[in-house]
Design goal:
The protein is mostly helical. 74% of the residues lie in helices and 0% in strands. The longest helix is centred in the N-terminal third of the chain and has 41 residues. The radius of gyration is 20 Å and the shape is elongated.
């Protein structure tokens, strides 16, 4: 094997590790972020609802919505971590790709109900981009980059 081949393998191995680390970091940040939001809706909904970007929120009996949203956000944060920590990277990529729909819909909902454009794009839009990038990195990973040979 030539030194050029070894050098390109080393470079591609480092690139693959960097991509995997980026995907893992994004996944953990996204999961912890949405999990935190979910806990906020369950424990202190009044302190978190204003950050969503809508001009008004349900009151009275309709505020039960916060429990519904809270547990769903918490589960949305736990699921990617389970797949990440059990090594199910391909399934994690598909889950995140589907999950892009959530912040996209949040942004559309905020915009269509005359909420904050800055929040719709800056929080929900940016989240959608981050989730899509993580999904793309995971779905384009080689199965085992170290096993590639030039035989």
């Amino acid at each position: 094997m030539s030194s050029t081949t070894l050098s390109s393998r080393s470079t591609s191995g480092r690139a693959a590790r960097a991509r995997a680390l980026t995907a893992d970091t994004l996944t953990v940040l996204i999961a912890l972020g949405i999990g935190y939001v979910g806990v906020g809706y369950l424990v202190t909904p009044d302190s978190i609802v204003s950050g969503f970007g809508l001009p008004e929120w349900p009151h009275g009996g309709a505020s039960a919505f916060f429990s519904i949203k809270g547990i769903r956000d918490l589960a949305s944060g736990i699921a990617p971590l389970v797949l990440l920590f059990t090594g199910q990277r391909r399934a994690l990529g598909w889950l995140l790709l589907v999950d892009v729909l959530i912040p996209l819909d949040d942004a559309i909902t905020v915009l269509s109900h005359h909420g904050s454009t800055a929040t719709a794009l800056g929080i929900h839009g940016a989240t959608a981009v981050g989730v899509a990038v993580a999904a793309g990195l995971l779905l384009t990973e080689r199965r085992n980059p170290a096993a590639t040979t030039d035989a």
